[in-house]
Amino acid sequence: MLYVILAIVLSAILTFYRIVKGPCLPDRIVAMNSIGVMFLLVLVLLSYYFERKIFIDVALVYGVLLFINVLVMAKYLSRA
Amino acid sequence: MIDLIHTLRQIVAYVFFITGIYFLLSTAVGMIRFPDLYTRLHAGSKCLMAGGISVLMGCIVLEGSGFVSLKLIVILIFLLITNPIAIHVIASLSYQFNLIPKTNAKKNIDE
């Protein structure tokens, strides 16, 4: 289980390159959304790694807040 | 008999985990190497959801019946509903910024 977590974290680190070097701003927003979903999967797998099943609620709330972040950014940037 | 069922469940779960890792690394490579914004939107929507569905299905197979599996199904359905909405909103935002794609198809047809 630990190797699965390490592979997803490596994928998130490779995706972080697009945040550092993105030509425009929606590139960074897409990379942020991808890293957020990857860390949601890491939170679900850490619940299995520690054998403490109540941590799945943390992942559920994190998914709701991630979606609201993207909507607020788009609503703020689209209208003048 | 119970040990055989447990072993088979673990094998199926790790097959799901390996396919999920493959799709997530594909997302990372596409996010680095695609030349344009709209292709990156494509990589950030489809490959990411394939990896997420695979990893969550592996967790559901490891868990079995119970309330934890129901919570995992709720997370999966929520991701399936909300991530295409987020990608569509970002695409609409980048259309209002007048960001044209770098590779124009009409030029490729003319040449």
TrEMBL record, chain A:
Transmembrane segments: 31-50, 59-77
UniProt keyword Chaperone present: no
Family the UniProt entry places it in: Belongs to the CPA3 antiporters (TC 2.A.63) subunit F family.
Chief localization: membrane
Top-rank taxon: Bacteria
Name of the protein this chain belongs to: Monovalent cation/H+ antiporter complex subunit F
PANTHER family given in the database record: NA(+)/H(+) ANTIPORTER SUBUNIT F1, NA(+)_H(+) ANTIPORTER SUBUNIT F
Membrane protein topology class: Multi-pass membrane protein
Keyword Cell membrane: yes
InterPro entries tied to this protein: MrpF/PhaF-like
Compartments, record wording: Cell membrane
Keywords of the record: Cell membrane, Membrane, Transmembrane, Transmembrane helix, Transport
UniProtKB/TrEMBL annotation, chain B:
UniProt keyword annotation of Secreted present: no
Entry-linked Pfam families: PhaG_MnhG_YufB (PF03334)
Membrane topology classification: Multi-pass membrane protein
Entry keyword set: Antiport, Membrane, Transmembrane, Transmembrane helix, Transport
Similarity-based family: Belongs to the CPA3 antiporters (TC 2.A.63) subunit G family.
PANTHER family: ANTIPORTER SUBUNIT MNHG2-RELATED
Name assigned to this protein: Monovalent cation/H(+) antiporter subunit G
Native source organism of the sequence: Halobacillus shinanisalinarum
